Amino acid sequence: MGFGDIKSPAGLKVLNDYLADKSYIEGYVPSQADVVVFEALSSPPPSDLFHALRWYNHIRSYEKEKSSLPGVKKPLGKYGPAEIEDTTAADSKAAAEEDDDDIDLFGSDEEEVGRIVKESEEAKRIKEERLAQYEAKKSKKPALIAKSSILLDVKPWDDETDMAKLEECVRSISMDGLLWGSSKLVPVGYGIKKLQIQCVVEDDKVGTDQLEELITGFEDFVQSMDVAAFNKI
């Protein structure tokens, strides 16, 4: 599993294809998986890889909130298509072997070895303190709520339907996780106009099937309801 060398043209192509039918690296909301892959890139993907570029710009908008996104960070090679070999482990091993070649253990005296050990212990202590601070900060932040913006087309029976009353009925629907927005009347022909109304919903609480059932329940005014546009927020 992996993206190969994600900074290379081939690796970016794998990322773009992987995101062709996905909004995020894992799941349906931004998470630490997106942060890991985002931080592995040194620059935005080229414009012709529009799936990867769309995802990159979206995750970049979470720069200030990325530490509070859900999930636990895993190595880069734990994400991506199952059929692509992860090269990050091999690259890390090669870099480690190169570093080992640069260290002259036989030339280090006891004082130098002691200094290295002390610095390693200090770095470990600082890392543990920062992790503790991060966990404490993360526990105080509310969980990210997935929301969607929906544009509904509500059609009346005929040109004699009271559209003001129809809209009043629609807006009378009140439930947790539903917020009504702006609206307008749009001509559809033969003197008939449909109500086009915007709403924002919390995905875990309100669904389009539920809205359709409630809206079409006003049988004296509503003939049908369609979803004109649906966008994740």
Automatic annotation (TrEMBL):
Superkingdom, taxonomy of origin: Eukaryota
Ranges where the Elongation factor 1 beta central acidic region eukaryote domain occurs: 105-138
Keyword Zinc-finger found: no
SMART domains registered for this protein in UniProt: EF-1_beta_acid, EF1_GNE
Residues making up the signal peptide according to the UniProt record: none
One Pfam short name: EF-1_beta_acid
Taxonomic lineage of the native organism: Eukaryota, Metazoa, Chordata, Craniata, Vertebrata
The keyword Protein biosynthesis is assigned to this record: yes
Descriptive protein name: Elongation factor 1-beta
Subunit structure, as described in the record: EF-1 is composed of 4 subunits: alpha, beta (alpha subunit of the eEF1B subcomplex), delta (beta subunit of the eEF1B subcomplex), and gamma (gamma subunit of the eEF1B subcomplex). Interacts with elongation factor EEF1A1.
Region (Disordered): 76-99
Role this protein plays: Catalytic subunit of the guanine nucleotide exchange factor (GEF) (eEF1B subcomplex) of the eukaryotic elongation factor 1 complex (eEF1). Stimulates the exchange of GDP for GTP on elongation factor 1A (eEF1A), probably by displacing GDP from the nucleotide binding pocket in eEF1A.
Gene Ontology cellular-component annotations: cytosol; eukaryotic translation elongation factor 1 complex
GO molecular function terms noted in the UniProt entry: guanyl-nucleotide exchange factor activity; translation elongation factor activity
The Translation elongation factor EF1B beta/delta subunit guanine nucleotide exchange domain, residue ranges: 147-233
Gene: Eef1b
Sequence similarity: Belongs to the EF-1-beta/EF-1-delta family.
Keywords for the protein's UniProt record, in alphabetical order: Elongation factor, Protein biosynthesis
